[in-house]
Amino acid sequence: MSKLFERMQKKQLTRKQKSKIEVAFIYLIIAVMFIIIFYPLFWAFAISMNTSSNLYTASLSPENWSLDNYRWLFTNPRSDYLLWYRNTLFVSTVVTVVTTLLVTFTAYAFSRYRFKGRTYGLYAFLLLQMFPVLMAMVALYILLNTIGLLDNLWGLILIYIGGNIPMNAFLVKGYLDTLPKSLDESAKMDGAGHFRIFFQILLPLAKPILSVVALFNFMAPFMDFILPRIVLRSPENFTLALGLYNFVNAQFSNNFSRFAAGAVLIAIPIATVYLVLQKYLISGLASGATKG
Questions:
Q1: How far apart are CA 110 and CA 85, in angstroms?
Q2: Which terminal Cβ of the chain has fewer Cβ within 10 Å, N or C?
Q3: What residue stretches are annotated with the ABC transmembrane type-1 domain (predicted)?
Q4: Residues 80, 245: Cα–Cα separation, whole Å
């Protein structure tokens, strides 16, 4: 009995040791990921607080922390930062509202109705997700030039909306498939029409996945550089990513500290939208991946 008891104790110790090792390994991974994520953020913030505009002379721990770069962005007559910020907010807001609305209607139709071409439409969504918008940039450039929307924010908005619909519609469709159709049938028995079912029953239940779609669409214009670079030409139409590029290009090649200051301020609207939608985001990300 004593030997058996000793063996059981050894097994318990072994399990505890394994558990401690697993927990330590998990914390190690979290620490490494935190450093990887936090270092670029700290670098940008520290560089933005330097008085030196040169990247090589700037320090991650400046002796004199200064807000001069931020003041320059907002007060200097040569700075178009506020204009670029306004352009980006305009593009992001329009893209978010229109894309979310179109995606919701499209996903509802594919989830709740059975019609000819439905299966092929879903296959088309999957196929379109495999190819980035950049593959069609030559055709889009010619199209925008033909309809007079080249070097126009509305042309950029149209590209964003068209490119975002397939992926987001398939994501929302997967979420709506998890909602029981008995809700629709019960509402129909009470005399509700299709629009009432959609707006009063399904739409409130779909808030989590719609929050995810809205956040992703809002973030895209702030992060994207290549599409604005191809579509926009005039400085007054630049978005933030394209405008800030000029701080480290050509005659502005030494303004890395101002570039960092502008990049830090990009996080404000994105963080604001995230905080507003955060209670829906986790459940939306998890549920959107479920296919009914």
A1: 37
A2: N
A3: 85-277
A4: 12
